[in-house]
């Protein structure tokens, strides 16, 4: 496991948590844009977007409002799980063309999909830095020892 020997660490818990919330809300925004930009939206796409928007939005609210360390850890884990699932679906639909969504599947040049992958990947990376102890998320703090 990467630990960096404790030499690299940041004590900005509110900033890290705010960044996590912003990344999840970025996923929400790109999904809303994707659904609004498609004239013929099949039912399965609407269900997926509703689940992604609801899930990411709810997790973002939990990250904002939760004060319990255990609930906060659960929120980060749920956010990472949602991000991995979303990134997997988006990457999968870049590889496999869906006949009901020809304009946004089977292609790598769709801006909303690229941004969604970036937001989801960045959230997982940010959570990894929290797990490694490089960053700390609210309500915890680094306990510096000099």
Task: Give a verbal description of the structure.
There is one protein chain. The chain is mostly helical and 146 residues long. The chain has one domain. It is 66% helix and 0% strand. It has four helices and no strands. The protein has helices at 13-37, 43-65, 69-95, 111-131. Helix 1 (13-37) packs antiparallel against helix 2 (43-65) and helix 1 runs antiparallel to helix 4 (111-131). It is elongated. The two termini are 24 Å apart. The mean pLDDT is 87. Keywords: Membrane, Transmembrane, Transmembrane helix. The chain crosses the membrane at residues 45-65, 77-96, 116-138.
Quick overview of this protein structure:
The chain is mainly alpha-helical and 146 residues long. The chain has four helices and no strands. The chain crosses the membrane at residues 45-65, 77-96, 116-138.
